[in-house]
Write a structure and sequence with these properties.
- Strands 4, 5, 6, 7, 8 and 10 form a 6-stranded mixed β-sheet that branches.
- It is globular and about 60 Å long.
- α1 crosses α3, α6 runs antiparallel to α7 and α7 packs across α9.
- The longest helix has 16 residues.
- The protein is an alpha+beta fold.
Length: 293
C-alpha cells in the first residue's frame, strides 16, 4: 500500500470508471486484495453463476448463497491480488460499472479504524497513536499495520475493518502507517461466544429415517472434523462454514441424531472465526434448503 503513495495524489478524489481497473491492478501489485463495488458500497456477484445474486445469497451480496463456485465470489472473500481474475471478462465489466473500489484490509495485513463523524475523529486524536489517515465522506479512516478481527460499533460512530471485512479505497492518505496498537485490539474484545451458547437458537433438524451410525463415535468424529475444518480456515471463511454445515447435515441431518448441543458446537466454532450468530443461522438454513430439509 505504501508503494502507491508516489503514484497517487495524496488528496482523495472520486475515480472515473476508466480508472477503476488500472487502480485495482496497481493495488493488487502492491499486495492489496481488491474488489469492485456498485452504488451504495455493495459488492458485485463476481462470477457468471452469481451475477445478479442468482445463487440466492443475501441481497447485499455480502454473504454467499448455496452456490458451488470454484472460488469465493462475494464480498470480502472475493477480494484478490490475482491480475488474471481482476482483468477477467466479468470483472472488467464490473469495473466499468463500479462506483468505487474496495479492498480487504486484513488480507493486506492492515486494520482500518473507520471514524464516521467529527466526535469520533476527536476521540481518535485524543486516544489513538498517530498513523496514516484517509478522508472519507463523513469522517476519516485511520490505517494501522497489522490485522485483527473486524467489529462494528465498538464506540459511537467507530467501526473496525480488518479480517473478513472490506473498506472503500479512497486514496493512499497522508502520514506514516504505524503498528496496530493494543488499544484498538481491545476495542474489539467481546465476551467469547463460548460463554453465550444460549444465543444459538437454531434447532437441529429432526428425522425419522434409519440411523446409519453404528456407534456414537461416528457422529463425534464427524463433528470434531467439522469443527477443525472451520477452525483451520485461513480464507473464504463464509464459504467454509456453509460447506461444512452442508457436509454435516448431508451425513447426520436426517436420522434425528443431530441435537441442539451438536449444532451449538458448530456455531461456536464459526463464531470464534468471526462469523455472527445471524450469519451462522443463514448458512445453516441455506444448507438445509439445499438438501431439501
Amino acid at each position: 500500500m505504501t508503494q502507491l503513495t508516489a503514484n497517487r495524489r495524496e488528496r482523495h478524489r472520486p475515480l472515473l470508471p476508466a480508472e477503476h481497473l488500472r487502480t485495482a491492478l496497481d493495488l493488487a501489485d502492491a499486495g492489496v486484495p481488491v474488489l469492485p463495488l456498485r452504488a451504495g458500497k455493495v459488492p458485485f456477484g463476481n462470477c457468471r453463476t452469481c451475477a445478479g445474486n442468482a445463487c440466492g445469497g443475501r441481497p447485499d451480496m455480502k454473504t454467499p448463497g448455496p452456490c458451488a463456485c470454484p472460488a469465493p465470489c462475494h464480498g470480502w472473500a472475493a477480494a484478490t491480488t490475482d491480475p488474471a481474475v481482476i482483468n477477467s471478462g466479468i470483472w472488467r465489466r464490473a469495473w466499468a460499472q463500479a462506483s468505487a473500489i474496495a479492498y480487504h484490509p486484513g488480507g493486506a495485513g492492515l486494520t482500518v479504524v473507520d471514524l464516521d463523524d467529527a466526535d469520533a475523529i476527536t476521540w481518535a486524536r485524543e486516544t489513538l497513536p498517530a498513523t496514516r489517515t484517509v478522508p472519507t465522506t463523513r469522517g476519516e479512516h485511520w490505517i494501522y499495520q497489522g490485522a485483527m478481527p473486524s467489529a462494528n460499533a465498538v464506540r459511537p460512530s467507530v467501526d473496525i475493518k480488518s479480517s473478513m471485512q472490506y473498506a472503500r479505497w479512497l486514496g493512499p492518505g497522508t502520514g506514516t502507517i504505524t503498528a496496530l496498537p493494543e488499544i484498538v485490539r481491545t476495542l474489539a474484545v467481546k465476551e467469547p461466544a463460548t460463554a453465550r451458547p444460549v444465543a444459538i437458537a437454531v434447532p437441529a433438524p429432526g428425522g425419522s429415517g434409519q440411523c446409519p451410525h453404528r456407534t456414537p463415535t461416528y457422529l463425534e468424529r464427524g463433528l470434531a472434523m467439522a469443527e477443525q475444518r472451520i477452525t483451520q480456515a485461513r480464507e473464504a471463511v463464509h464459504a467454509t462454514v456453509y460447506r461444512t454445515f452442508l457436509a454435516v447435515l448431508s451425513v447426520h441431518g436426517r436420522c434425528g441424531c443431530l441435537t441442539d448441543a451438536h449444532v451449538a458446537r458448530l456455531f461456536i466454532a464459526a463464531q470464534a472465526k468471526g462469523e455472527s450468530a445471524r450469519h451462522c443461522t443463514e448458512a445453516w438454513n441455506n444448507a438445509r434448503t439445499a438438501l431439501g430439509m
